[in-house]
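Anyone able to model this chain together with glycyl-adenosine-5'-phosphate?
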Amino acid sequence: MATDQNKFQAIISHCKEYGFVFPSSEIYDGLSAVYDYGQYGAQLKKNIRDYWWKSMTQMHENIVGIDAAIFMHPTTWKASGHVDNFSDPMIDNKDSKKRYRVDHLIEAHAETLPAAEGEALLAQMDNLLKENDFAGLKKLIEDKKIKCTVSGTSNWTDVRQFNLMFSTQLGSVTDEASEIYLRPETAQGIFVNFLNVQKTGRMKIPFGIAQTGKAFRNEIVARQFIFRMREFEQMEMQFFIRPGTQKEWYAYWKEERLKWHLSLGVSPEKYRYHDHVKLAHYADAAVDIEYEFPIGFKEVEGIHSRTDFDLKSHQEYSRKKIQYFDTEINQNYVPYVIETSIGLDRMFLLTICNAYEEEDLSKDGKEDSRVVMRFPAKLAPIQLAVFPLTKKDGLPEIARELMDKCKSSFFCFYEEKDAIGKRYRRQDAIGTPFCVTIDHQTKEDNTVTIRYRDSMEQERVPLDKVKEIVLNKINE
Ligand code: GAP
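re: yes, here you go
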């Protein structure tokens, strides 16, 4: 059985073994902090994305979704502040040449300390970061005798800033004018389309624009599996509001987003808010929603009060008026923005960590165990597995008929090899909530055995009720 300390490693192995996540280009020994999603991972990720999309757009009459391009005009990133400000303080170890993000290095050290001491260290770090006191940060690292994990020494360079954006060339001519960036956040695609959407959709403030898509960051310390990647996916929503109402809308979205997380059945104790001390260049308030991963409480989602920083800045750089005429107060203004920003890959990791369980089933001196992924039925990559007990006597034909009836409504999986017990365990490991077995009795009375993943209980139900049972659970 995996302990808390090695549970994370067990989860990573499970993800690989059961087709959820593979290291990218693994046959060439992989690419650091880049991952591929396998057959079950891609489906789980899509289900999470769809659930977010539906709750943001379909369930809110005043939020619409867009899909902006990854490449954007380079001035976008000047206006957004990313060219000048999107950097992190880094420090290099002179012996190993390994580069660390200063906050990650100190955070990792804090985790090794007794709780109170660790918290005091983090508070000291937060203050220094807020002041941009790089000399103070270096001194803190030296005073605490924080060591490089590779060289084991404390031989550090000064702390310096590094920009996290990837750049590439547009077209075949390599000059400064053709340099463009891979977007480090999806949000700017929303800001530059504010007027397009507002006008064509006749949107009235308050309203939101949502989108999901890839973002890229040259993370220096990219570790902890898919928690911090160089290529990842975000699900963001910008909510445009009247200036002066930002406090109430910030409080509203802070609460609303936590409710969304809890709607997936995760225990509330696994979540907490973390208010930002050091605010990003665009924000006047910011909070993280953190989840308790096996590696500790970590950020999954950020809610930011972004003021009118982005729209104003795009107005200035583009020299195009980006304003809204509010008919209720007869006034033109640049709207304020509350942003909700969640990493899809982090939400995927949360879903995996929350679902993963090694269950001891030993009984009467006979050792037994299973790994079960307790995904909510609506997110499970496979929702129903259909098993004919044997490959003959007309049982596969009945099973195939059930598959045909169900597969347009949800994901089904058909298998006729191996003993039923083995087939159940394989479905437990990928988190299939329902397995149905067609046996000889089915031919007599049109009933089947449905087996529930979580309780492992089995019951006899009419064959023609199976689709309804599964659909009810998925739509809960
Ligand atoms: N538009 C605001 C923004 O991008 P952020 O806090 O930098 O804010 C938002 O990122 C979310 O994106 C984070 O809460 C996290 O879930 C996810 N995220 C950020 N960097 C990531 C990375 N390197 N790998 C995976 N997810 C990341």
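The mean pLDDT is 94.
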